[in-house]
Design brief:
Length: 401
Amino acid sequence: KFCSRVSVEHAGPRLGSLGAIFILLKSALGAGLLNFPWAFAKAGGIHNAVTVELASLVFLVSGLVILGYSSSVSGRCTYQAVVREMCGLAIGHLCEICFIFNLFMISVAFLVIMDDQLGKRELTSRSIPSRNLSACSPLLHDTLESTSRVIDQMSLLLASLVLEFALFVLQMTFECAPVCRMSSWASTFTVIPTICFGFQCHEASITIYSNMENQRLSHWILVCVISMIVCLIIYSLTGVYGYLTFGKEVKADVLMSYSSDDVVMIIARLLFAVSLVTIYPIVLLLGRSVIQDHLLRRWRPCAGVSALESRSRYVVTVLWITVTLLFAIFVPDISKIISVIGGISAFFIFIFPGLCLMFAMHGFCVPRVILTLWGAFTLVCGAFIFGQSTTITVMQILGKI
């Protein structure tokens, strides 16, 4: 899972409809595939989980549409810039903090997943961090580059690897279908953080919209609806087949539920590990760029900014890799990380779009009042999801101490 913060060069070729749909899909599809069968089991079965997905689809599409509209109103082409322009500096700073923390936790999740896939084959414990270090050693050179060329070179590889992984999972999980008992509706809330994490492409949406050839709002709505429906189908099929195969025994990382001697799943694990190795530098570049932008705003009056920028790039890169490795070593399983990321994702899917809509719809005519109320309702839903997922995660962690 990642988001694009690349500056848009309007002089270059513009995105068509298919290109925009493809990039939105590429931004959304990723590590969330691993967790959906487990989320279906925790939600109490297929019916509950799919119902929550369909209800969430309204908010997911709504958030994308609001962000596209806010980008056209503000004239900005990155998520943070749009929020800062529409909602003010204070909320803009909060957006930057959430953005960095979200990318940091996504980096930790990637390392945990890579360790799971490699550790499944080697049958060793995650308490030995050398495997994570060896997996991340080739990342250091790439992430020290300050240009966005790495993103362009790796994006196609990432998309193809994730697609291959999805096909492998669907093929393997269709073999058996044990019947599992249903649980209460209260348990359906456990699937919401996974949905937020899996469908999270809202940070990239503003850059995609700003680079589209046809920026009519009706066209953007069509692009968003098609992208989210395709994501819904892929995630739902993965969740349904994984849940039917393993039932309540499915693990948070569905690949860990398969035998370590299965040749097809070994290939799937390797493909997924390679895709995560290629995406980790991209996530680091995005997080580092936000941190550097904040530092440069403070250093701008000072002399020697270019030298400070070069040094800060190295320091932030080394610290990011080191701290994410330390976090990944002590994380018990991927479900805890996804719960935290899902809670933070609520800011980008619900809270910030709701605030943008409320600030944009200042007026007293009936349509604007209705839209303002919808923005407020979206904001409240996002706050509930963040509080619910964060509270559950903290209670689970404290319960194991």
